[in-house]
Design a protein that fits this description.
about 65% helix, globular
Length: about 140
């Protein structure tokens, strides 16, 4: 529940951040930037996985790029007091790492290299942790 006092502004920002892959968390972030909101701490719905749904049939690179774009759009609309969070969203570690793996899965190695370079520049520690984890998995096999 939230106050409808800012409905037009919330709706405008929600339309700016719209994505066929995500929706809920943009709404929660936008609502929170306008003040408190409340939730019911109970399971009130069920999540069904449909193998023919949009999120399961679209290429991995497309989904990873959409995630990156959403993070940048959220950063664009955050109030000034959240500048540090906006800066983190612009270099979001998991987005760049997921792009590397998405390009690899699609055998698009030039894109993989570009994403690797961006990850090395923007989130070197996360990239290194991912590399160490992959090496450890190979050793464990």
């Amino acid at each position: 529940m939230y106050s409808t006092r800012h409905y037009e502004e919330v709706n405008k920002k929600l339309l700016y951040t719209v994505s066929p892959y995500l929706g809920d968390w943009q709404l929660w972030i936008i609502l929170h930037s306008y003040g408190p909101f409340y939730y019911i701490d109970e399971v009130t719905a069920a999540y069904r996985t449909n193998p023919t749904s949009l999120t399961h049939t679209v290429n991995r690179v497309g989904r990873a790029k959409a995630n990156r774009d959403i993070c940048h759009k959220i950063a664009d609309i955050l109030p000034a007091e959240y500048a540090d969070i906006a800066a983190d969203l612009r270099k979001t570690n998991w987005v760049w790492i997921s792009l590397i793996f998405a390009y690899k899965a699609e055998k698009r190695y030039f894109g993989m290299l570009g994403s690797f370079i961006m990850a090395a520049i923007l989130c070197p520690k996360a990239l290194w942790r991912t590399i160490k984890g992959a090496i450890k998995k190979r050793k464990d096999k």
